[in-house]
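so ive been stuck on this for like two days lol. basically i have the seq below and the ligand is flavin-adenine dinucleotide, smiles is in there too. i just want the complex predicted, nothing fancy, no docking runs or whatever. if the output looks off dont worry ill sanity check it later, just need somthing to start from for the group meeting slides
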Amino acid sequence: MEKKFDVLIIGGGVAGMTAGIYAKRRGRNVAIIEKFTLGGQVLSLNRIENFPSQSEIDGLTLGQMFAKQVKHLGIGVILDDIEKIDFTGKEKILFGKKQTYRAESVIIATGLASVPLGKNEDDFLGRGVSFCAVCDANFYKGKDVCVASKGGSGIKGALDLAGVCSKVTVLDSQDMSKFASNFKNPKIEVVSNVEIEKVEGSDTVEGVLAKLNGKEKLFKTSALFVELGKRPKTDIFKRVLDLDDRGFIKTDANMQTSQENVFAVGDVRSGFLKQIVTACGDGAIAGQLA
Ligand SMILES: Cc1cc2nc3c(=O)[nH]c(=O)nc-3n(C[C@H](O)[C@H](O)[C@H](O)COP(=O)(O)OP(=O)(O)OC[C@H]3O[C@@H](n4cnc5c(N)ncnc54)[C@H](O)[C@@H]3O)c2cc1C
């Protein structure tokens, strides 16, 4: 059965939740469609010091505060993953994994996604492969772990992991020899020019098979943290909306995209400064106009 709304928001990060709050308070029949859980990237931040009114707060607490307000206002939250869209008609259609949805206006708040390794890492998701060092470090307390990195992208994650793991090996695909000596942390080893070929293991991760100096080498490990950076989640909008050269959705100052009644807010939108307050500002404008 199809569900109909005035406004549908794709993505329940801080941008999407703020858009929902503003749309709901205008009396719109609004729902947020989120594929995981309300909060988005904020949930993985251990310390935020620039969110006005909070001198210091952890991301999980802040994300839960947003979600509490969404629930308090009675905004619909639908657990689904939008895989396809049709923005050609007056009524916008969203095709989720579970159901199809229709709305007068759509607000895209899909944020950023981790860049994948592109090997067999999905076979070990939740069983040793992780895309979030801050979220999952504690599961590998006292263990040896590896980090997949490109040009130093994994260093921040490695520092987070070194707090609890016994050894962290950063497998960087580029030459990091000039920078490696800067890491005084005795738990972190940075290996340059590593080409990861495969995650090895039976039930859980046991090693990472890679090419180093032309030879195959097995790095034994309990986990592989993929820390290759982030990219906008705009695959399903590629041939439908105007994107900038890095794949972010272009909007005007009112968050309006190249399609009428389709808005984009937060990190997925082309623009300067990707932060919580700017994502909320975007969400407020779109929620007021959608
Ligand atoms: C390491 C790090 C540190 C940071 N530190 C700070 C800081 O100190 N202060 C600060 O202000 N900002 C900080 N930021 C930035 C801040 O976290 C982001 O700007 C903000 O969280 C973006 O929110 P968003 O709602 O736009 O996107 P996201 O948080 O990415 O939310 C997008 C949501 O959409 C969902 N989604 C995606 N695709 C679909 C789909 N097809 N169907 C259904 N749901 C979907 C996702 O599951 C996700 O929940 C930091 C970011 C990082 C990575």
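DSSP finds six helices and 17 strands in the chain. The two ends are 24 Å apart (CA to CA).
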